[in-house]
Write the structure tokens for this entry.
Amino acid sequence: MVQLPRRYVVQMCSVLQQRKCCRKLRYDFNAQEESFPGLAELLPKVATDDGTVIITSVNDAFATPGSLLDLFRGSFHDGEGIAHLLNHTLIVALDPGAVHPHCYHLEVAAANVSSASRIMTKSYLEIVWVKLSLQQRVLQLGYNYLFTDVDILWFRNPFRHINLYADMAVSTGRFKGDTESLASYPNTGFYYVRSTNCTVEMLRQWRAAKSRFPPDHDQFIFNEIKAELATGELQIKFVFLDPVRFDGFCQHHSKIDTVCTMHTNCCIGLETKVHDLMNVANDWKNYMNLTLSERRTGKNRWKVPA
């Protein structure tokens, strides 16, 4: 009989204690609040062996040659042994023009979904909430997911640095130094959710909270309700990701030697994002062209953002 290390046994016991509320909920995983035709058939083709799917979303503007999707996909090929993760990435296309392998077309009623919608416009908000309903359906179908905005470059395997025992692990706009502190401000451009009946209900409550804080986007509302999700009946276990590994332009704490992902948050406009991500990608390529001894000096730094 294989004996697990004590630290894993302790973690698993803690998780089982927190799962008591999940057994009480008796959530119907077959319930389908929205119809997403073809999704159930596509997910098994994309998921990892442990049932996890990476999800990003694009419209025609993001998917044009040389735009964000090309940079996003290119970072997997240029990263450290992560090209295979593209096989497990579901690209949610918001209009028929943005078509790629493992692509799922999500119909959105908002006008101008093909263009880069500015934050807080009507079309932007509709896109945000429709994507969240699709993610709830992914959980209902029994799959974990890691959602990533397409304006994020990947350099190293993030799953090695995400606590997979957490219900949700989320990147931060402001990190308070403690991965379990609810004082950290979440950034919902990059987050992992484990499929349980608790997290299905969490997504349902997150979406329902939109009526309590109108009109606003998912990130602001999630920050408003995170404490009640963590301390209420659901007892959701949150982990806030350290920007040393999961960085962005808002904080920019990472070293190139350790970072897994870089997000162009706090960077406004599609052209600006593309320009800055190209510079970040060039920094990474220059770093990878160094010898191993040169990389291990600990003196390598990002040149951007300035």
